[in-house]
Amino acid sequence: MALTTSLALPVSSAESDERSTAAATPPLLSRGIYSLFPQYHPRGSMTCDNVPRVCRASGSPGPDCCRKQCVNVMTDNQNCGQCGKKCWFGQTCCGGSCVNVMYDPKNCGGCNKRCTKGCFCQFGMCSYA
After folding, report:
1. Does residue 53 fall inside a structural domain?
2. Does the keyword Signal feature in the UniProt annotation (predicted)?
3. Which one of 11, 35, 62, 120 is at 20 to 30 Å from 102 when CA atoms are compared?
4. Is position 115 within any domain?
5. Residue 65: inside a domain
């Protein structure tokens, strides 16, 4: 069994005013260190619409800029061949064209996987069945 007691102490009005103003205004550093540097924007300044060469840097998802994002229009299903051209359901972007890799003999099961001459592509496999 636990027994707790509390003791109420009188607080002067000056102390209570000081506590309420301290709680109402957050300290400067609570917003982050970058609030001290108004010219520094850690995320917004390096989009490819401002600086297109950022897409050609190593580690970039692709060399092309579409809607403020770096993409590769040769392989991106949302921007296949050009910005905004989406591949349909069941299609994949191969070399800038939307193809169905389940039935295309030039891209059977994946991009640039050709079936041998005389074979057909079915369910992503050459000469299935």
Report:
1. yes
2. yes
3. 62
4. no
5. yes
Question: Residue 73: which domain range?
Answer: 46-86
The overall average pLDDT reported for the chain is 76
Whole-angstrom CA distances from 17 to 3, 9, 48, 90, 107 are 33, 16, 50, 66, 74
Query: What is the pLDDT confidence band of residue 79, given thresholds at 50, 70 and 90?
Result: very high
pLDDT tens for each residue of 93-128:
999 999 999 999 999 999 999 999 888 899 999 987
- Sign (positive or negative) of CA dihedral 81, 86, 88, 92: positive
Locus of tokens 């030039």: 106
Nearest to 118 by CA among 105, 99, 103, 102: 105
Whether residue 126 contacts residue 120, with contact meaning beta carbons closer than 8 Å, is answered with yes
pLDDT of residue 56: 83
**Number of other CB atoms surrounding residue 121 within 10 Å:** 22
Flag whether the pTM goes above 0.70.
Answer: no
Structure tokens belonging to residue 64: 């092309």
Q: How many domains does the chain have?
A: 1
Q: Which helix (H) or strand (E) holds 14?
A: helix 13-24
Q: What is the mean pLDDT of residues 10-28?
A: 53
92 falls within a domain: no
